[in-house]
Amino acid sequence: MSETAAPPHQRQAADQGLGARTRQWLSRAAASDGHERHTVALIAKCALAATISWVIAHDHIGARSPAFAPFSAVVIMQVTVYQSVVQALRYVGAVSTGVALQGALGFLAGPELLTFVLVSLVALAIGRWRHLGSQGSQVTTAAFFAFSTYVSASGNTERVSQLGQIVLLVLIGCAVGVLVNVTVLPPMRYRSAEHGIHTLAHSLCNLVGDIYPALRERKMDGERTRHWRRRAEDLPGLVRQAQSSVQEAQESAHYNPRRLLRRHGSHTSFSGYKEVVDALGRVTHQVGSLVRSLDQWHDGRADGETYDDFLQHYGDFLSSLAHITDLFSRIDEDHLLEQARELCSAAAESQEQRSRLVDEAEACELPVSDLTQPYGILLVEATRVMDEFQYTCDVLQQSVDAGKTSGCP
To answer: Residue 35 has what pLDDT?
Structure first.
């Protein structure tokens, strides 16, 4: 495979060390539309919403407990505007219920230990109501904070004022959180089916793209392979996110102003993307198995030119797989026909690289049947991961062709 087929920023083995890895993470966040960039965007939006809420609660209202507002803003910040609205309504309902419960029982029974016991029992029971979802625990949390506020207040008037202020701060935080999510980079496509594939494929591309230069340059130290293995262990979480993104893609259009833009007007159908995400999920499993094999065998490799040549050829094969993941990371619904054909072509080239790898192993008479040596295991892993990549490309092509012959090899 030619060097131009691989991602250009991944032709050399990555440096090791905390500082180097931090720079690499930041570089991925800046250069690719992957998990790192989305993490930075969500953190920035949460910080902005929390800051605005704090300024309103502390500087303008002069609340006694202004932290309720920024806390609420962060809690309801979700990956889609629709989910932010839903979670905000549930959160406000849960907090209001907890505060009202404490207020009612507190005024009836007073700030006594028995009151706290009753509040705890009732709040825990209400919190299990399924319609509150993940915000059910906030009923108990709000009730406990309300009890603390109730006990510290000097009179009934102050108690009513403080309890009401808690609800007001929660409303402010939720309103600010939803407003920021709607107006600042509203996540119309962040967790859409298309961008779910982007995020997963970017992470796969970054991992495989870090592995193959190290194999070519014979930099197979233990620290490096353990780092690959830790990154591979994070991939299943991205698969689950991508799978849920197929459903969330439909939700993202609700209450989102970006749906009015012409650019997103036609992005309402995601047929075939679920199958592609599921196929990529199997790819990540095989990549993880391949990385574990590399980590297991790096210390046990034989000293000699034959093994180094095998690693170099293996790096060439992984370079072709990095090219496929790079193509998947740029999937665009408006250009699926051309991209599906390009992916099929890339898969055919990867098949050739895998065949060449097997031929080289046979020509060098490597002990592929010796389980104490890595050759056979790595060849099996190469076949498995190639099969999954080929199937993923076929699925996309078949989806584009709507049941017609895919044309992939």
So the answer is: 61
